[in-house]
Request: fold
Amino acid sequence: GQNIDQPTEMTATEGAIVQINCTYQTSGFNGLFWYQQHAGEAPTFLSYNVLDGLEEKGRFSSFLSRSKGYSYLLLKELQMKDSASYLCAVMQNSGNTPLVFGKGTRLSVIA
Amino acid sequence: GAVVSQHPSRVICKSGTSVKIECRSLDFQATTMFWYRQFPKQSLMLMATSNEGSKATYEQGVEKDKFLINHASLTLSTLTVTSAHPEDSSFYICSARDLSGGDTQYFGPGTRLTVL
Reply:
């Protein structure tokens, strides 16, 4: 079967660092995506990992361990505008199969 | 990144009418597009996979006669909600995968449908 787990909600303080974890069990694996979704808006692409290791992109970094079926999204220097849902998604096969999404983690950044 | 557009962004219609939503990939060709629905504070739900030049693939529980999908070209897919009812009110989002750009899947901005 397919299973992607991430925490439902997290709260963090402005200026701090937060790590959002994602574990997956899927029949195939060809990469993992992180998306950000603000309330009432569509998801926007944040990162893509297919090889083990850390990908850094400004204040956001994403890590992947294929052997452990584990990824995390790291957000540094949190800002109030980072309050959003963060979606972990696995691409099982290349080409035109749909991504498998987790249920998302709702992050609240407080002052 | 690649751009996917949707039209309209917001639509209000009467119960029993049909509503067409367009999804376009603006700077890449997409042989496949995906249609999602999202209710408030819930996760994305994949409705169907739209294939250019062939029939769409619907997820279990999604009525293909109610949600008509047409993928007329490599840059356009349409979703028509037929005989809409208030329970069809939702946020409909399309996405497309840029196969020439690392397989990244990009989302359109979504269409908020309200059926009165």
The first strand of chain B starts at residue 4 and ends at 7.
